[in-house]
Amino acid sequence: MLELWERGLLQDAGDGELRLVQTGIAALPASLNALLITRLDRLPAPVKQIVQTAAVLGQSFEVPVLTDIVAEPLRLLEQVQRAAEQQVWVLGNQQRVQFKHALLREAAYEMQPRTHLRALHKQAATAVRHLYRDDLSARWGEMAYHLETAFQLGLAEVQAEACACLQEAGHFATRQYETTAALDYYGRALALSAPDDVAAHSDLRLWQEEVVEWQGNRAAQQKLLAELEEMLPLLDVPRQTAVALRWARYHTLLPDYESALTHAQNALALALTTPDPLLQAQAHRRLGMILYRQQQYKAAASTFYAALELAQSQYATDLMIKSLNNLGMALDEQGLFAEAQHYYSQAIALQKESHDLYGETITLTNLGWQNVIMG
Q1: What 3-state DSSP class applies to 97?
Q2: What is the pLDDT of residues 119-153, one digit of tens each?
Q3: Domain termination residue (choose one: 112, 136, 157)
Q4: Backbone angles phi, psi at 98, to 5 degrees
Q5: Other CB atoms within 10 Å distance of the CB of residue 369
Q6: Domain of 14, in residue numbers
């Protein structure tokens, strides 16, 4: 309909209806894509160029990013307005623009040579990194899309950067508890990683395994751990330790405490061969949690204390807080309430210092449970 109107083949009959003024249907493009290309070709050349460049940015985009990648930015706002008047897109708030039709954007995108597209995608990633350099956390996915696409279009030099952005996008999605998005980013990074990059393949699977654990998907969790197990001979000791710790966690959740204990002891033995105090602290804490589940409270407390000392040596606040809480719980179970309160108080002080309200509620819950036990 818009095509007929723009070509002057329709007129307003004055009764709310539009009528053909001449027969010219045969002259219309034969396909929808051809029709869309015809619409784009009728735009003034500067406007058409802006529309094609913007198509690289996606169905919606921000004018500042477009400004950074166009050849002539001085008249950009004028051209953006003219494209809006031609029903190409809709102008939104905060300099955000939305293409009116996905197919129109796709047509504008596909009209361009691959070499030009991959260069534009790389420029777009650079523009996003520059414009939002003060806080890229929510932009990693956008940069990853552009670099990944540039690589797929033949720009091999961006492979490593694309993988790094996908990993960061996965981490951000994980922190936001967007588990489906996180798995998608990690999966794409895995597909893009060099086949011989064993470290990247193991790290990505470990991150995926953590996410599927949150989802409660034990089958997927076991599959990923089995894949990591096959990679063990190729992994360094810290990564072997990480795999053992994840196996221990998996078996704890089943629950299968005997298997969990075996893996935790293996993890600790491996960690102690490294110079990494934090890895050793994590292994001690995992072992302590299994001993606690087995009601071996004295042994658990001793192990938690070892984890705490190692965490304190590095001032690893999060690990310190967890170890303090775990130690308090193990002491509670032995009736050593005053000692437990001492460690809970330290945990609360650290949580207040780091503004960890959620963690503070956990510690206060532990103190409340202690009061229940004490009557």
Answers
A1: strand
A2: 999 999 999 999 999 999 999 999 999 999 999 99
A3: 112
A4: -125, 125
A5: 12
A6: 2-30
> Pairing state of beta strands 96-99 and 89-91?
antiparallel
pTM of the model: 0.86
Residue range 300-318: average pLDDT? 98
Give the containing element (helix H, strand E) for 299: helix 297-313
- Kindly state the average pLDDT of the residues 265-275: 99
Are residues 52 and 19 part of one domain?
Answer: no
Separation CA 244–CA 241 (nearest Å) = 5
Residue 26 has what DSSP assignment? Answer: G
Burial degree of 223 (CB within 10 A; 0-12, 13-18, 19+): middle
Q: What angle do CA 158, 164, 167 make, to 5 degrees?
A: 140
Q: What is the mean pLDDT of the chain?
A: 93
Does residue 179 have a pLDDT over 80?
A: yes
**Same domain as 13, residue 103:** no
Q: Identify the burial level of 244 via C-beta atoms within 10 angstroms of its C-beta, where 0-12 means exposed, 13-18 middle and 19 or more buried.
A: buried
Does 373 lie in the same domain as 280?
Answer: yes
Tokens read off for 292:
């606690």
Q: Are 73 and 63 in contact (CB under 8 A)?
A: no
One DSSP character per residue, 213-276 reads: HHHT-HHHHHHHHHHHHHHGGGS-HHHHHHHHHHHHHHHHHTT-HHHHHHHHHHHHHHHTTSS-
Q: What is the end-to-end Cα distance of the chain in Å, rounded?
A: 79
Same-domain pairing of 332 and 364: yes
